Amino acid sequence: MKTWAEVADIQPLAGKILMNSMKKNRISHAYLLQGKRGTGKEDIARLLAKGLFCKEKNGVEPCHSCTECKRIDSGNHPDVHWVIPEGQSIKIEQIRNLQKEFTYSGLESNQKVYIIQGAETLTTNAANRILKFLEEPSKQTTAIMLTENSQSILPTIRSRCQIIDLKPLNTRDFQQQLLEQGMTNKNAALMSALTNNLNEAFEMSNDEWFASARKIVVQLVEMFVTNPKDVFLFVHNHWINHFKDKTEQEQGMDLLLLAFKDILYYQIGNESSLVFFTLDDELLQKAAMSFSQHMLIETLDAVLQAKRKLKQNVQPTLVIEQLALQIQR
Fold first, then answer.
1. 108 pLDDT tier (thresholds 50, 70, 90)
2. I need a labelling partner for 270 at 20 to 30 A (CA). Which of 89, 159, 182, 258 fits?
């Protein structure tokens, strides 16, 4: 999303709220943009920043071509600061460095923007530190916090922000976009279930690591069906070695979740909802016969719990080991 018109088209309520704020020059001192991956959080944050710095705006729309806009796009604007997780969390040292910036005037103006990406990963100490800014707002400073899970953020932080809810995009519409851009039916179905971002969808569909991840998930499901006693060994020899960092581990869980959803859909006759398997896939048919409906529902719940544990920074090897044992039962 490059313009407010696009935001209003894809996220009507969020677009209306933010465009009205821009028109009336009533930008909040702090925003909390909450929505799943691919719903446009980063794009909206960038548009807000451009709206505050662009000198060639057409109404609320930034020009995208001036020096200010170009530097914001490149991440090199001296008065627009992005804070992203270091490893699995945003640490107190990062917020201390940010607080130092609070005490200075902007390098080129008195306006400053801070964008905190993955705000749900703030450690407790870091979250308490950021409260200092939120409790003492400055008209010259705007904080934009981005999160997939606002419930993991301190209530005291949420209460000091204007919360903007971003709705999941229409999966069917996005799938059609992918098909129109030349993606195969099979890949378009899977990618539309994993992301709402066009570029990300094509990057994943052409990525060798992702192709291997998909294969490993297929093999794991096959192990559960044909040779459950060796699942634990497979997890250690293949899964753990492939899904290494937090993002990869969560993506592995997403793929596993979609695979077991497909088995349930096939079992109840909802073949039109298949995204991971194809209707003629022999493994899908075998799995549907091997798992009862009750077992599949329990498995889906177990995968969702495993995803939550990863977000809570539980040791990843322990998470997949426990999940494998739960599914084996």
1. low
2. 182
CB of 40 within 8 A of CB of 11?
A: yes
pLDDT of amino acid 98: 86
d(CA 21, CA 23): 6
Structure-token pair, residue 26: 């009533």
Q: Got the DSSP string for 249-288?
A: HHHHHHHHHHHHHHHHHHHTT-GGG--SS-TT-HHHHHHH
CATH code linked to domain 207-328: 1.20.272.10
Sketch the domain layout of the chain as residue ranges.
4-165, 207-328
Indicate if the pLDDT at residue 247 is higher than 80.
yes
Chain position carrying tokens 């977000």: 311
3-state secondary structure of 115: strand
pTM over 0.85: no
